[in-house]
Amino acid sequence: xxxxxxxxxxxxxxxxxxxxxxxxxxxxxxxxxxxxxxxxxxxxxxxxxxxxxxxxxxxxxxxxxxxxxxxxxxxxxxxxxxxxxxxxxxxxxxxxxxxxxxxxxxxxxxxxxxxxxxxxxxxxxxxxxxxxxxxxxxxxxxxxxxxxxxxxxxxxxxxxxxxxxxxxxxxxxxxxxxxxxxxxxxxxxxxxxxxxxxxxxxxxxxxxxxxxxxxxxxxxxxxxxxxxxxxxxxxxxxxxxxxxxxxxxxxxxxxxxxxxxxxxxxxxxxxxxxxxxxxxxxxxxxxxxxxxxxxxxxxxxxxxxxxxxxxxxxxxxx
Length: 318
What we know:
The protein has 318 residues and is an alpha/beta fold. It folds into two domains: 2-91 and 259-289; 98-253 and 293-311, Rossmann fold (3-Layer(aba) Sandwich), CATH 3.40.50. The chain contains twelve helices and 15 strands.
């Protein structure tokens, strides 16, 4: 049996454990939050090193990427280096494969069309693969990296603008404390409505759930939300705000969807290989072998968007 643990800088109130079968192997999946305590997270990674098959980094990215360039967060590299034997992943491998594929899946299998749809992607440099897929599908996208990452209410309207901005700012930003740009610990439990005009403009809201939740308004009637890492409580909160359709790029696993770091760690564990040995094609093959599908759930009739009930799978994990 494989054991995978996600060590997260997020709230410990979101901890979860589940045993499942993936690609023919039994896997125990666990998420442990450290409430934003970097030292505690590092100590836990050291404790788990050599005792589990793979470790996921939650609540922090190892890299951000734009185009063919990527930049490492100093804090994340320091965390990952606490493990000497066990492979450590942050979900980047799946963001560049699974999340691209999810856009194609929604078009091909669920009959969705992104062409001309007003789409707010709260942060794109942490999931550039999906950003490229949405642009290729013809979506009218606002990339909210300045808005939701730096608090500057300036929308970016093209991948080119995003890449230019990243090349200017990423070398500096990635050297600063990660908590300046992303909610960790108890900050993940607080909602302070801001940037309402961008939420109102959008038909589709895409990206990291904590970044979406941090500033979301009370009224999200009819919106389509494409995200991951949602608990049953999060789903009910979205339902109360009127969200029409929820799609999680990772499947429902024991009542919640885990982050991409957890799923990537699980795939690395069952592959028996190091992350550096897995190509984009390898990840796609593992995704197909595991029969993974996005979870699609209609939360309000006005947001059903023409989905047929038989095309609303909750995931293929058992």
